Amino acid sequence: xxxxxxxxxxxxxxxxxxxxxxxxxxxxxxxxxxxxxxxxxxxxxxxxxxxxxxxxxxxxxxxxxxxxxxxxxxxxxxxxxxxxxxxxxxxxxxxxxxxxxxxxxxxxxxxxxxxxxxxxxxxxxxxxxxxxxxxxxxxxxxxxxxxxxxxxxxxxxxxxxxxxxxxxxxxxxxxxxxxxxxxxxxxxxxxxxxxxxxxxxxxxxxxxxxxxxxxxxxxxxxxxxxxxxxxxxxxxxxxxxxxxxxxxxxxxxxxxxxxxxxxxxxxxxxxxxxxxxxxxxxxxxxxxxxxxxxxxxxxxxxxxxxxxxxxxxxxxxxxxxxxxxxxxxxxxxxxxxxxxxxxxxxxxxxxxxxxxxxxxxxxxxxxxxxxxxxxxxxxxxxxxxxxxxxxxxxxxxxxxxxxxxxxxxxxxxxxxxxxxxxxxxxxxxxxxxxxxxxxxxxxxxxxxxxxxxxxxxxxxxxxxxxxxxxxxxxxxxxxxxxxxxxxxxxxxxxxxxxxxxxxxxxxxxxxxxxxxxxxxxxxxxxxxxxxxxxxxxxxxxxxxxxxxxxxxxxxxxxxxxxxxxxxxxxxxxxxxxxxxxxxxxxxxxxxxxxxxxxxxxxxxxxxxxxxxxxxxxxxxxxxxxxxxxxxxxxxxxxxxxxxxxxxxxxxxxxxxxxxxxxxxxxxxxxxxxxxxxxxxxxxxxxxxxxxx
Amino acid sequence: xxxxxxxxxxxxxxxxxxxxxxxxxxxxxxxxxxxxxxxxxxxxxxxxxxxxxxxxxxxxxxxxxxxxxxxxxxxxxxxxxxxxxxxxxxxxxxxxxxxxxxxxxxxxxxxxxxxxxxxxxxxxxxxxxxxxxxxxxxxxxxxxxxxxxxxxxxxxxxxxxxxxxxxxxxxxxxxxxxxxxxxxxxxxxxxxxxxxxxxxxxxxxxxxxxxxxxxxxxxxxxxxxxxxxxxxxxxxxxxxxxxxxxxxxxxxxxxxxxxxxxxxxxxxxxxxxxxxxxxxxxxxxxxxxxxxxxxxxxxxxxxxxxxxxxxxxxxxxxxxxxxxxxxxxxxxxxxxxxxxxxxxxxxxxxx
Lengths: 692, 351
Description:
The complex is a heterodimer. By secondary structure, chain A is α/β, with parallel strands linked by helices.
């Protein structure tokens, strides 16, 4: 720790802090453009100048360490000033230079109202311009369907270049030419090839990079902001949903150090148009092979007439990937009251199960914990597309000091180098048998991390693979006091919540695959769109979009998406998070738990709650860990890994295949989105090009 | 800096493969850096690739260099576009870099430019036969031989319109040309009579170490009284005035009596020290007569000094003549002292 005096206030900060961080610790605000906490230091905007006592001229506080300051003549702590006349003048000078080439198009700029340059020009600039020459003109660049450019506005902070190179790990953007002629572009103006690219528009302190799909759609001050959580993958990124009236206008990341830091994937951000397209806004009932709009009463009556005459053994329920804990709980209670045991939330055929303890299906290490791992083995997963922000953490860990990383599964670009061991279970057993040198690295590691993905588990021998991975993890000492390095990576937002609730087939119950193959007569489908349901069964689909599930349905109950209801989601770590309502569901669509509550009444098994609060009270009393919002209830790692290791079983020979075939089209909301369709087409093109 | 751009698509070659020679050069360059730091060789490789491609860098060459160095193409592109000596558009067989900076312009570069414009055309434009193209560049550091141009790798200096026209004719027709000065001058020696540095003693090696020798001889004379005094004056158990933690380790001042004494070296002779400190003896010149001293060239003063009663010339001009003690300096050193015949009065009039 080092002492430093900031504007007369003495603070004690770590010596490796920069002056900017020290000033912030002392409560002084330093304007900046190029500096960003999560990127490398560039020091090229000069906005953060401060006065250091004894230095002949102002210094860039973002690039000057506290330990680099000289103490006073008698050993006093170094002293800096952030409010002196020199600093004020320096800031005014820098701001004047920045504005020399910045166009005065704030009235037509999408960044207006949320622009760092605008705000800082107001706070630290002068009110007039002395510049009478022509401004620089720069051609706009094409950077793909998500980022719109207006390069005249660029102030050359290079945050976007640093983000793509450092965090996203794709060297797509660069700064060509030099000096005044410097231009930010991709090579030959190719579209950016990252699943995190839209973050560059968030990072841009001016309006040079803005979000293309939202261009000219709103002004930031018109929007109502709602904190929420993302359901596009099992990471559960913290987001802020901005809405205007009934409509969600945009989704922004929220800082959450434990989960997403401050990034979100393009899918999380840009499915906004999918929230209003292809929506189910009224109940439908199939008559003579055609769906016709119906009233809620008609729909419920149709269901009741079918359910009442059916043996509970021939009734089943499948839960989809976007369901919140509340409706899953309501469905579970309803099915229990009907005496149905055929209930499954694993439409992808994953073999994870709560039977072996909560530690057997959680990402026990936690996402932030990845940064502590010193050897990483990924089994049957492509984290870059299954959980991009987990991949960002692994990359962050790799950048800090490369640990040994190895992969068993599909060989693909993860943005960091890794040792490719093999494609399938054979390699896993070889590794466990010590026939790969990587096992030594795992054994030698203090905190080894084994990540098992759904590619390894969503297959008939999934349990055997999980067991083999658990044995391996146990042998290399991945589970010990203070460290649980056995982690299961999920791809569905609802999955961990469902497993916590025990939404797996009960005794003699059928699993999702069997139910879908026609083993039941009445199938209740709560938003499961990734599973093909064979003809025959009477399907009740409760969901939001006219996707695969709705096409196969006999009765459609229109429900609310995650932005239209208050719902609990549990991410892959087991972190309980709340999604809040930012808008209302369209038409006659209702919140899911309310639909189930109303249906239960018609079926004659009224659920014991009349409000969401009552439901939650009951839920929390039965499952107390759901009440700990934002928290991870750690699971018993030792018991779980023992239970898993004892399963055994024979491994198949098929290679592991990632369940996510197309990153941009993994759920009904994304499939309804035009932006996602465009991204998907582009990604296919890039993939083809890369294959050439 | 001229506005640079990439060559249009129809000028770009279909492919570019590093030649064996370039490959060998590349491997040699890469070997200069530690493993994993091969990207450090990017400038050398781009230069070589430019040579191979005929003086400019096609896109494919940039991509080939990127592949060779295992770098992202955009990173190599950044380097290639940053440095102006990488040409991104085709150049002529003879690529003329014409110096357009002040010294050359003062010595007639404007005429040379007119020749270029008349014979070749605009900058960044290759003649139809592909022989010439030219580009105005900043100072190439041959100001004493101004005006000059660089053609491919060589300098051509002391140009006049006549000899430059002839040079271009010779190049175009493939006749041998003379590099360097075009007026028969040896490098940047004086243009007419050579009358300095002519003493043969300077070149026979006899002066090597002469100063040192004299220094040692004089040092012998002074005895070591100073050394003891200096050692005594150093505190034996010195305490740092400031806490040392976290601060850079400071080295001793380069050559103090105390340090010399500690290291067992001879102390410096006080007379030498005194002489070295005396500015009047820094360079020995015979003091000039007052009347022959040059006066300020300009009545304007860039120093904001108050003037008395309409006096145009400031009383204390800036730089003293070499050898004049600062206290006595009255004149600006302006080159006129090399022409002792011309006497300039204080009012900037020659007599």
